[in-house]
Design a protein that fits this description.
There is one protein chain. The protein has 368 residues and is α/β, with parallel strands linked by helices. The chain has two domains: 183 residues, 3-Layer(aba) Sandwich (Rossmann fold); 161 residues, Glycogen Phosphorylase B (Rossmann fold, 3-Layer(aba) Sandwich), CATH 3.40.50.2000. 48% of the residues lie in helices and 13% in strands. The chain has 16 helices and 13 strands. The strands form three sheets. A six-stranded parallel sheet has the order 10-9-8-11-12-13, with helices on both faces. The longest helix is centred in the middle third of the chain and has 24 residues. It is globular, with a radius of gyration of 20 Å.
Amino acid sequence: MLVVGARPQFIKSAPVIREMLSNHREIDLSIIHSGQHYDREMSEIFFRELEIPRPLVNLHAGSGSHAAQTATIMNRLEHFMLTEEPNLVAVPGDTNTTLAAALAAAKLGIPVAHIEAGLRSGDILMPEEINRKLTDHCSTLLFAPTKTAIRNLKREGLGKSAYLTGDTMVDALHIVMPAVLEREKTVLRRYGVQTRGYVLVTLHRPSNVDDSNRLREIQLALQKVAESSRVVFAVHPRTRERLVKMRTLENLTGTGVIVTKPLSYLETLSFLRNSSCLVTDSGGMQKESFLLQVPCITVRSTTEWPETLEGGANRLVANPQIIPTAVSDIMAHKAFRERIRPSKRPFGDGYASEKIVRIIRKTFRGSA
């Protein structure tokens, strides 16, 4: 049983699902959608673009506090675990869905496999940090995307359950890139922007958007950036809700900032691949920009992906007032204009899904 519920989980799971359905028909796969992302643009469209089969059920967990959402998913998921009796529950990423599914399975004595295990930002105030640590400690199989993740797991006494597989998001990029190249010109034309002629922005973390003063500082910083470069701001539903409540969303659109609805996966990659740089607080977007050799400014003080900091490919900026200067530095730096070319491939070779499924088959061979 594979449990997903948010954009990053759909992306991380798609190559694993494809590998199981294409090459391992003996595996009986059930997909459960928690409904954590209930916005159509943040959910259904990803199933279609990534060619993920329709889930067995959508739990419609919706929004609410972290505790309420996690409890709702656990409560509704338990019924399907008892009905389906899976030999293994696989949980990707670090969302509330990840933790809820891992806890529900562990309480029922069902082995758990954590895809993207071992990530640590060191910031325990991040809900994702809590989710990933607790999930790792109640999992049977830990699929680590990087050597750093393996070291983290060994440090916490989990080394015997850990496997270095690489990152399934690399696999996902390989799968969808032909479609991205085919449609990217149409996507850019629709919004009236040109290659390397804009800065892409995505923001959604509570630490940035729930505090109205901090969100206002970020907004002013983006308006400053827009004075010298086009800005495409793909507004997450959470962020839009806050901006509307603050009555400042209109201020952005009147200052040269192009405000878009949530983007699909292919649209996001099209914008990212052709941007001059990315401003984000997303872990997944940091990694995608690194893989696509796009300079990144992360509006956080820590990252769970330290590999992206190599050669200055990703810069941590905790103070929103520094964002315009950081963007200017990127525009003026010759190395960035020619794109960062990492010396290593810390996220693997694009075969993570094959390795994960192979380990699952080997571990559970002989199970009913």
